[in-house]
Amino acid sequence: MAEINFDYHPQFFTATILEWKPLLKEDAYKDIIIKSLQFLTNEKSIVVYGFVITKSYSFNMANTGWL
């Protein structure tokens, strides 16, 4: 059976706020996540394929090559 090289496959990451509290309701907090993803993308540390941010969780699909 062929081996899978995970360096070139997207990884899924979900972060959920404890007790689903609406911590990310304010745009300023969402901007922190977005700016972090932009920084990692600009530094060529990550390739972001998509992300979703709601008031109580964040979901990201990316490839880092080092996970």
Which features characterize this protein?
single chain, 67 residues, alpha+beta, three-stranded antiparallel beta sheet, 3 strands
What does this structure look like?
By secondary structure, the protein is of the alpha+beta class. It has one helix spanning 27-42, and strands spanning 11-16, 47-53, 57-63. The protein has a 3-stranded antiparallel β-sheet, with helices on one face. The radius of gyration is 14 Å and the shape is flat.
Short structural description:
This protein is an alpha+beta fold and 67 residues long.
Secondary structure elements and their pairing?
Blueprint: E1 11-16, H1 27-42, E2 47-53, E3 57-63
Q: Helix segment count?
A: 1
Distance between the first and last residues' Cα: 23 Å
- Number of strand segments: 3
Q: Going across the biggest sheet, name each strand in turn.
A: 1-3-2
- The level of helicity is 10-25%
Average pLDDT figure = 85
Low confidence ranges: none
Rg over CA atoms, rounded to whole Å, is: 14 Å
Tally the structural domains: 1
State the secondary-structure class: alpha+beta
Largest sheet: 3 strands, antiparallel
Shape: flat
Q: Per DSSP, what share of the residues sits in E-state strands of 2 or more residues?
A: 25-35%
